[in-house]
Amino acid sequence: MKHLLKMLDLDGKEIIEILNLADQLKYEQKHGIPHKHLAGKTLGMIFEKASTRTRVSFETGMYQLGGYALFLSSQELQMGRGEPIEDTARVLSRYLNGIMIRTFKQEDVESLAKYGSIPVINGLTDTSHPCQVLADLMTVREYKNKLEGLKLCFIGDGHNMANSLIVGCLKVGMKVSVATPEGYEPAKSALDFAKDFEDFELLREPLKAAENADVLVTDVWSSMGQEEEADKRKKDFAGFQINEQTINAAKSDVMVLHCLPAHKGEEITYEVFENHAKAIFDESENRLHAQKAVMVKLMG
Ligand code: CP
Ligand code: NVA
Q: What predicted TM-score, i.e. pTM, was given to this entire model?
């Protein structure tokens, strides 16, 4: 493993190895056991979009590992004035030990990895959010003590979260059902990967998708960069909500996850969110531990 660009790049065994290391690092952090695997190393964090969790968890994670993290807003880099990504990659590779990037196009993350000579971590693009899905899998395993055989149901937009969940969950032996409105299906790359799996379903009916689910997941109806479509999306996504009915359609011990930020009253009701807040905020916390594991694997 040289980079973390998307879930498709990892195999099931590598995912489990990251989760095992994440569990260990979480234990060490909770018990005050030093784990400075990245002493003297520096991570550059390029952000072309807003972030609370990704920025703070990477920066804190690097600090806990004995390293240093630099916040680089794309607007303040020469990249924001048009310096090509392939040149930025070659320059940053001379100073840093790793780069985390949050941007729009998946191709930009791939270019950074291609032209640079240091590990690149995808902190979210329009098509994938691998760090979030590693934290999600870590959280599911904490609550259910296993992954294989569990059914995860995603209701909502076939955007970055749906794409990465489909690939990540199928790779670790989970069943996946996805319900999206017409025109909001997951990316071709995720569907192409899923087509060989009997345990994958793409449906239009959220309640049917939720049947027998161990885990229910949703995400905002309008992602970063889609703000202008918000009104249309609210209409198109009506009914694609996790609510009391969805919970009743799933297994009685279903857990609910949300990558956050959430728009309560849209993709999830206030009540369902608050009833499952413990798992949702454990999921947020696990961003820290899962990403520390990724950084140790890539930069250690
Ligand atoms: N879930 C997530 O990536 O959160 P941020 O946008 O706050 O980083
Ligand atoms: N789908 C959301 C996820 C935010 C973490 C977005 O891309 O804005």
A: 0.98
